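Q: Give me the 3D complex with adenosine-5'-[phenylalaninyl-phosphate].
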Amino acid sequence: MTDYDELLRDAAAAATASATLEALGQEQARFLGKNAAVTLAKRDLGSLAPDARAVAGRAINEAREAIEALFAERRRAIEAEARAAQLENERLDLTETIETVRRGHLHLVTQARDRLEDVFVGMGFTVAEGPEVETAWYNFEALNIADWHPARGSFDTIFVDLGAPEEVMLRSHTSPVQIRTMEQQEPPIYIVAPGRTFRTDSADATHLPAFNQIEGLVVDRGITMGDLAGTIDEFVRAFFGAEVQTRLRPSYFPFTEPSAEFDISRADGSWLELGGCGMVHPNVLRNCGIDPEEWQGFAFGFGIDRLAVMRYELDDIRELVNNDARFLRQF
Ligand code: FA5
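A: Here is the predicted complex, encoded as structure tokens.
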């Protein structure tokens, strides 16, 4: 019996020392295989007397079961370790991926447009909109630009192949929204209309074929050029800061009389053209069923993309549409 106690201790040590299933299998064969002590002892039982045989047989079976239990337990332990190691290996570390996800934001032209709307809404204007595809009536005729008028040529219009020739077009300015508003609303009118406009202009440092304008229109009693100048001055200070100055220069637009172009001052003392403006021409008021003897108005229109170029001191207006994320991310 003492032999088996020692055998069990040896078997327990051998099982514990086995680090892999393969090593454990080899040790198991050594303690339970056909040349193992318990196997050989069983074979020799026949040579014993019947009484002794029963006692020895029971001892051998107990020893064998105990050794089998030892190896089974060790096998489970090794398998559990292997599973734990595999799980650890397969675990995904997502920390880095989450950290590199960037949030998008509004394009800087959209930011400028939103800010312009806020400034004008703060001054008592409401925001109006019109279609990007227009008819000759809204884009030209109602604005006092008859089809023989040379000013039509200066708008470099993109026509749509629909209806009569040159009858339907992508709007070349936001001024048609003036007409649509005056047709639908009774004065007094105080609106701004931002939106996309299109011309056959080739893209260069200061031009885009598709760009954005914002139109302003006021129609009320007793409106003068002084109201126009004051409104532009107030808006420019709200948008650019109190140190920026404005000036009006005489100019010509068929839909305003008198007409002017307005400039803003730059840090180096030079002036930069922002847009056109003037007192709404009596013909335009009449075209919309408004009596010019009773009502007067002023209007202005300028480029939002050019405004963004000035505000963010960009070298080239095309930066706005190149969609280079490294550029856009800065604003
Ligand atoms: C007009 O479009 C007039 N409708 C403005 C107006 C409205 C005058 C109301 C009087 C009363 P003009 O063609 O100058 O005017 O364009 C106005 C502004 O749009 C320009 O000063 C410039 O800022 C911008 N602009 C014109 N063409 C382009 C272009 N190709 N790319 C970017 N901005 C442009």
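A quick observation: The longest helix spans residues 50-90.
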